[in-house]
């Protein structure tokens, strides 16, 4: 369990958690994820750490070709989606 300091009216970049849709561009795809902080809490939003890790994977910092992965406890699953797209892209390369 994580302790997330959060005050709804505090602002400071937290407004993005209340947007119903988060849009990202990774692996030559546009990825849209529905978010719902009010009903589902911390597991229903895309956290900055997921964006950073997705960017890290896209930069080619890790070899994904021929790898298998299991994503556990990853909230909305952005990292798993990006990893799958990247692995598919690498499989299609000659």
UniProtKB/TrEMBL annotation:
A matching Pfam family: Methyltransf_16
GO biological process, one term: methylation
Transmembrane spans: 40-57, 69-88
Subcellular location: Cytoplasm
Alphabetical list of Gene3D superfamilies matching this protein: Vaccinia Virus protein VP39
Gene Ontology MF, one: methyltransferase activity
Catalysed transformations (reactions): L-lysyl-[protein] + 3 S-adenosyl-L-methionine = N(6),N(6),N(6)-trimethyl-L-lysyl-[protein] + 3 S-adenosyl-L-homocysteine + 3 H(+)
Top-level taxon in the UniProt lineage: Eukaryota
Homology family: Belongs to the methyltransferase superfamily. METTL21 family.
Protein's name in the database: Protein N-lysine methyltransferase METTL21A
